[in-house]
Amino acid sequence: MKKLLTTILSLALFTHAFAQIQIIRTDFGDTGDKIYMGGRTAFAAPLSAGQGGANRTWDFSSLKPEYFDSTTFISATGLPNSPEEATHGIITGEDTAYFIVTNDAVTTIIQPEELPGFEGKLRVLAFPLDYLDSFSDTVKIAIYGTPADFGIPFPADSVRIIGNVISESVADGYGTLKTPTDNYQVLRVKSEIRTNVAIGFKLLGNWNTFGNQIDTVKTVSWYAKNGINAIATATLDSTGFISDFEWQVDSIYEIIPTGISAVLGNVVDLNIYPNPASSILNIEMADLVKEGVILDLNGREVMQFTGNTVNVAQLDNGLYQVLIKTENGLGHKRLLVQH
To answer: 152: which residues sit within 8 A by CB, 6+ positions away?
Structure first.
């Protein structure tokens, strides 16, 4: 009997030790994925990302979004001036990023506009990724040219940019993440990217320091199995508290053609009235609403509808987000319900 109990206990401990999420290649978005995110930058009190470790619970369920954003995965090959080796492009707001996604890593491509005259690659995620796994990568920088090449109004023979970008990450915890939208079983990844760029000039045969730029970005992200991308990401300030927190509100799959014009054309122009609304809400646009949802400030879905009119009489007073889908694209507007 004692041996049986020992065996059962050993099996239980073995199961417990390996009951965490593993991030693999399919947990990163592909062309056509679109993620709606809720976000917040202002907090009533300093907000911590919590501690790492096994079987942790990170509870952000009480947050109210002050803005909404979206991330669209597109084919990099269809974008003008994209790096040839890029396999993925991501549009978030007005920003575009390029990645190389393989079976063992996600590598971001550093754009010339981020570091003038330079294009490098930095691994920012590894596959498969398990609890306590860590990885790092470094991009070295050495660029030489004239002051005019870099737009520096300085009388010098030559200008050089010397530095590096270092990315370090560790999967420091797993457990339950609670967002205003849902609860998830997640693997937490803590990352730091440090950029150190020194600018020098050569005058009369001697090199001198012109300027030195040091930048550090620290983030904590939570990944769920089949989550397409991070379920939530917290950007930390210099004191270690959260300065910006974003979490997934909804995700859809669209068949999006390659090319940035197709993606930008995928945004539908619409108007809603009356706003504030108390009963019937009208959606004015060129197309018929094929699918529509209304989200509350917690990012929770409170209503589904089709067509260009919807009765919101049963909704409580407050702010909402109206998301619509037509044959030609997607659109969204904020709505105030006031009875």
So the answer is: 159, 199, 201, 210
